[in-house]
Design brief:
This protein is an alpha/beta fold. The protein has eleven helices and eight strands. It folds into two domains: about 170 residues, HAD superfamily/HAD-like (Rossmann fold, 3-Layer(aba) Sandwich); about 80 residues, no CATH class.
């Protein structure tokens, strides 16, 4: 089995414009026929944007903060140019642990003649701003003013239950700090579904990655990668799953609108990194499970 200790940055596996075929009457786009149909035993899920919507809008917190910081450097470009730079590297690193975006921020500060702080300080600055944005959402869930179903990608709970009924073990792996992932999974009534298989970023970031979680799943269960399903709205989990021969399902979720149509930017990006199937959400969960387990 391939050793995967660290995720690479975004890289195209598939060139050009690709259009798949849709399962009749559904929004499930089949890009290529998966090899493992009917045999899957394990499924890895990303968290934010793939299952949870609690942190919807996080880029609108991270990017402006970074632009503010870079505008204070001695050799800065125009604001528009800095915004473009920030948007590119933030999206290229989406799905990896948050600290990697802050490490890149520090590097961008150096490039412009500045002296950066430790990346962990920038990470805390970002988290303080993000928590202010999502405080009301978390409290509404905590006090039962909002139902968990309102803060998950549509159909996610039903899909997870359906996989469990098929005997598939489900795992949650996130680039968000593990204490927050576990807390928010609890707010969304997901703890029982995932059990002890909830993983997130740790302070010693070199000793955690989604690739490491996948490696652990395959080793501990002594299974081939073709028995693995992966669900994600970011490139990292799709790339990692494809690297071991698994089936990757790209969740091109429209987190803000939730209208049942795929986000075009996510769709193109997920296909480019190798997703076998594209879905906008899990509304067609019965058809999806029926296709995966014919």
């Amino acid at each position: 089995m391939q050793e995967l200790n660290h995720e690479s940055d975004y890289r195209l596996r598939v060139q050009g414009c690709v259009t798949g075929s849709f399962l009749p009457g559904t929004s499930i786009e089949i890009i290529r026929e998966p090899a493992g149909r009917g045999r899957y035993r394990h499924a890895l899920f990303d968290f934010d944007g793939t299952v949870s919507l609690i942190r919807e809008g996080w880029p609108e917190v991270m990017c402006p903060m970074m632009v503010e910081i870079l505008l204070e450097t001695p050799n800065r470009e125009s604001q528009a140019e800095i915004e473009a730079v920030v948007r590119e590297f933030v999206t290229d690193l989406t799905g990896k642990q948050t600290i990697y975006q802050m490490i890149q921020l520090a590097e961008e500060i150096r490039k412009r003649g500045g002296t950066p702080l430790d990346p962990s300080i920038y990470k805390q600055m970002y988290l303080d701003r993000l928590m202010a944005l999502i405080h009301d959402r978390r409290e509404a869930l905590r006090t039962a003013k909002r139902k968990p179903e309102e803060m998950v990608v549509p159909g996610a709970l039903e899909l997870l239950e359906g996989l469990r009924r098929r005997g598939v073990a489900v795992y949650l792996a996130s680039g968000t700090d593990e204490p927050f992932v576990k807390e928010e999974a609890g707010l969304l009534n997901l703890t029982e579904l995932f059990g002890r298989h909830i993983y997130g970023a740790i302070d010693d970031y070199r000793n955690y990655s989604k690739a490491m979680v996948i490696e652990r799943i395959l080793k501990e269960n002594d299974v081939d990668g073709t028995l693995l399903l992966g669900f994600g709205d970011g490139f990292v989990e799709i790339d990692n799953v494809k690297s071991v021969g698994g089936t990757a399902i790209g969740v091109a979720s429209d987190e803000a609108g939730r209208g049942g149509k795929p986000d075009p930017w996510k769709r193109e990006r997920l296909i480019g990194v190798g997703a076998d199937i594209i879905i906008p959400d899990y509304r067609d969960h019965e058809a999806l499970i029926g296709y995966l387990f014919p």
